[in-house]
Amino acid sequence: MYPANFDYQKAASVDAALKAMADNPELKIIAGGHSLLPAMKLRLAQPPALLDIFNLEELKGIKEDGDFYVVGAMTTHADVMRSHLPLFPEVAGWVGDPMVRNRGTIGGSLAHADPSADYPAAALATGAEFVIRGLGGERTVGADEMFLGMFESAVEAGELLTHIRIPKGITASVYEKYRHPASHYAIVGVAMARHADGQIRAAYTGAAEKAARLPKLEERLNAGQDAGTGLVEGADMLGDRFASAEFRAHLVDVLSDRAAKRLG
Amino acid sequence: MQLQVNGKTRQVQREDELLLWVLRDELGLTGTHYGCGIGICGSCTVLVDGQVTRSCLTPVASVAGKAVTTLEGLARTGRDGAVTLHPVQQAFVENPLQCGWCLPGHVMSAVALLNANPAPTPEQIDDSAGINLCRCGGYNNVRKAVARAAELKRGGL
User: Fold this and answer.
1) Do B56 and B119 belong to one domain?
2) Looking at the structure, do residues B90 and B56 belong to the same domain, yes or no?
3) Residues B110, B59 share a domain
4) Same domain, B68 and B101
5) Which residue in A250, A16, A257, A31 sits closest to A133, CA to CA?
6) Angular region, B81: left φ>0, alpha ψ -120 to 50, beta rest
7) Which pLDDT score, from 0 to 100, does residue A231 have?
8) CB distance B57–A52 less than 8 Å?
9) CATH value at residue B23
10) Nearest chain A Cα to B59, which residue?
C-alpha cells in the first residue's frame, strides 16, 4: 500500500498554516494521520501536498475559560481519556485502539466528520462549541451546526478547527456503543449528558449520514419518562453489510435505554 | 533531521517519509515489519515516548526529538558481549508463534502494556493483543507469553 506522491511540510504555527493554505488551495492538513494516511494509501484521497499541524503546541492541551473547558484540536484521544472533561474521556476510551488513541486527535476526528466516529455524539450531547480560524479571523460554531453530512463539517476550505469548547456544569454523562468488532467504529453510539439546568441532551452517531440529536428521547427523559422505542422513526438510517437500517434504528432504541438507565 | 532511536541519535536523510520506511530502509532496523500498511494489522508497531504507535501511519518528521524504541532496542548486551533478552522476548521464545510476521508488533505492544500495568489480567492481555493481527491464530501463545513476561519482569529478569 503506497500513496501517490505528495509534498510534505510541517507548519510552524497556526498563522503560518493558514497562510500556506491560502497560497495553495490543494494543501491538505494532516493531524494524527490515522484517517487520512490510510485513505491516501488506498488512493481514496490523493492530496498533492500535506501540511502537518500535529506538533503545534498552541493546539495541544486543555485549558479553562470561564464556563468552558477549552481543548486544543491536536490533543490526542489518549490525553482526552486521561482528562477531567465531562463525557469525552469515556468516549475517547472507545475510539479505535491504543495506537489510534496515541496518535489520533480530537480536532482531526471532529473536522473529518466521519459518520461513524464517536466524538460527534459527545459534542452534540455536551453542547460543545467549535472555534474555527481562517485568515479573516475566528468564528465559533455550535455543535448543532457543525456536522453537515458524511465527512462534511462546518470547517471550510482555508480554515482550521483550533479549539473545542466544552461547557462546565455537566453533572452526569454516559456513552453507550455497539462497535464494529474489527474496525471498532461505531455501528451505533449514543451519548447523553445532564446539564447544569437539569436538562438532558442526547445524540447518536454511526446510524445515519451524520451524527444528530435525539429530540424524541430528550423530550421523554426530560418529562421523567422512559426512553421507549421508535426514537428515530422516519429518519434516514444507514444500511450496509455490517448492519441494516432497521437494525441500526433498533440499536438506537436499545442503547438509548441503556444510557438512560446508567445516567440515572 | 535527527531521530532518537533505541537510545542513539541517528541522522536521517528522508524527512518526508513515514517512520516505518526510515527505520527499515534507511536505518536497517528490519525488526519492525511492514504488514498491511494502512494501520490495521499492527506489525509495524513501535514505541514513541513509550506509547504504542503505528510506524506505517506516522510521518517521521512528527517524531523528531521523541524517543523511538524498536524491537532491536529491547535486548541488552553486556560488556562481555552476552545478550540478555528483554523479558517479553524471552517469554515469546518460550511460547513462540507460527510464522512470526506479527511477532514484533506483539512484542512491542506487550512491552508497553507491562510498563503501564505490571500485572495485567487475562482480559487486559487479550485487549492489548487484539491490536496486533495474527493470521496463524497464535493468540493462545500470545496470552501465555505476555503472562509469562509479566512473571519474568516481576522476578527482576
Assistant:
1) no
2) no
3) no
4) no
5) A16
6) left
7) 98
8) no
9) 3.10.20.30
10) A33
What's the pLDDT score for residue B36?
94
Which amino acid, B127? Answer: D
* pLDDT score for B156: 67
CA–CA min distance A11, chain B (Å): 11
Edge-to-edge order in the sheet of strand B2-5? B8-11, B2-5, B67-69, B45-48, B51-54
Which stretches in chain B have pLDDT values below 70? 156-157
Same domain? B90 vs B150: yes
Measured CB to CB, residues of chain B less than 8 Å from chain A are 15-16, 18, 36-40, 42, 45, 48, 51-54, 56-59, 61-62, 109, 112, 128, 130-131
pLDDT at A170 over 70: yes
Average pLDDT over chain A, rounded to an integer: 96
Residue whose entry in the numeric block shows the C-alpha cell 523479558: B87
**Structural domains in chain A?**
7-52 (3.30.43.10), 57-167 (3.30.465.10), 173-263 (3.30.390.50)
* B122 in the same domain as B85: yes
> Is there a single domain that holds both residue B84 and residue B46?
no
Q: Is A97's CB within 8 Å of B131's CB?
A: yes
A89 grid coordinates: 474521556
ipTM of the complex as predicted = 0.84
Tell me which residue has cell 515489519. Answer: B33
Q: List the single residue in B39, B59, B131 with the smallest CB-CB distance to A98.
A: B131
Number of structural domains in chain B: 2
What is the residue-wise DSSP string for A66-128? TTEEEEETT-BHHHHHTS--SSHHHHHTTSS-HHHHHH-BHHHHHHHT-TT-SHHHHHHHHT-
Question: Binning pLDDT at 50, 70 and 90, where does residue A183 land?
Answer: confident
The confidence band for A1, taking pLDDT boundaries of 50, 70 and 90, is: confident
Angle between helices A245-263 and A215-222 (to 10 degrees): 30
Cβ distance of A98 and B109 shorter than 8 Å: yes
